[in-house]
Design brief:
The protein is an alpha/beta fold and 272 residues long. It has a single domain, classed as TIM Barrel. Helix 2 links the parallel strand 2 and strand 3. Helix 6 crosses helix 7. The two termini are 17 Å apart. 40% of the residues are buried. One of its GO terms (molecular function) is alkanesulfonate monooxygenase activity. This is F420-dependent oxidoreductase. It comes from Mycolicibacter kumamotonensis. Keywords: Flavoprotein, FMN, Monooxygenase, Oxidoreductase.
């Protein structure tokens, strides 16, 4: 049986407490299921922003997409998770990643380990959090083999990027197959998420590809448009695309960016 659709939106700017409250209420009213805050220097601090959003809303869940696990000691992070979950009425979901921006590590005066060590630490943090806060769902997002093996062992939700995979004609199918094999008996209980990076915001049906190009600078426009994380067409056509993603890949949870929210709300309405 297909899993129910869920839709998340990333909140990247906070101008004031009143503006945050209004935005959170509007997103909740637009049909979004989860409000996410990222974890980058220069962006809002995740936990205070989520607590403020929780105070202004009643049903929308609150999450991080995603915390840089290497920024935190597990016990201190778990304390913040417990408090935020309590203050949100049990609506918290925690997204975790291994971190990738070396300049942010340097600005935080933290060492920047190699990828293998960062992923090893991510697993350490994930294990601690899931042991001490087992009721809070954990999302792990990424694309590489090492990270997806950790996600397959521990995560309730696995975030995929749809990025090209060498030698794979259908990169998303290959990554889902990899996760299925790594998760084994856990797979059917895991929710699969896709981070959408481009959505049309006007009647042209064509998305702005600038964000997607940051992650795939060598691809042509046509190649970018063919990526699963890039949606195009009318709201009903995009809804059909997401139904096909669920049928073909088992994806049921889609996350868009804050500037896509108004346009994507029409897609949500077409799917419900």
């Amino acid at each position: 049986m297909d899993k129910q659709f869920r839709f998340g939106v990333g909140l990247h700017t906070v101008r004031s407490a009143a503006a945050l409250a209004e935005t959170a209420r509007r997103l909740e009213g637009s049909g979004f299921d989860v409000l996410h805050v990222p974890d980058h220097l220069g962006a809002p601090a995740p936990f205070p922003a989520l607590v403020a959003a929780a105070a202004a809303t009643t049903t929308i869940r609150l999450g991080t997409y995603v915390l840089n696990a290497c920024f935190y000691k597990p016990a201190l992070l778990t304390r913040d998770i417990a408090a935020t979950d309590l203050l949100s009425g049990g609506r918290l979901e925690i997204g975790l990643g291994a971190g990738y921006v070396q300049a942010e590590f340097e600005a935080a005066e933290l060492p920047f380990p190699n990828a293998a060590r960062r992923i090893e630490y991510l697993e350490h943090v994930t294990t601690y959090v899931s042991t001490h806060q087992p009721r809070v769902p954990i999302l792990i997002a990424g694309s590489g083999d090492r990270l997806l093996r950790v996600a397959a062992r521990h995560a309730d939700i696995i975030g995929l990027t749809g990025a090209p995979v060498a030698g794979a004609d259908d990169a998303l199918a290959e990554r889902v197959s990899f996760v299925r094999a790594a998760a084994a008996d856990r797979f059917e209980a895991v929710e699969l998420n896709l981070a959408v990076t481009a959505v049309p915001t006007d009647a042209s049906g064509m998305p702005d590809l600038s964000l997607t190009r940051q992650f795939a600078p060598t691809l042509s426009d046509q190649e970018l448009l063919a990526m699963p994380a890039v949606l195009s067409g009318s709201p009903h056509e995009m809804a059909d695309t997401l139904r096909e993603y669920r049928r073909r890949y088992g994806l049921s949870y889609f996350t868009v960016q804050q500037n896509h929210a108004e346009a994507f709300a029409k897609v949500i309405a077409a799917l419900r």
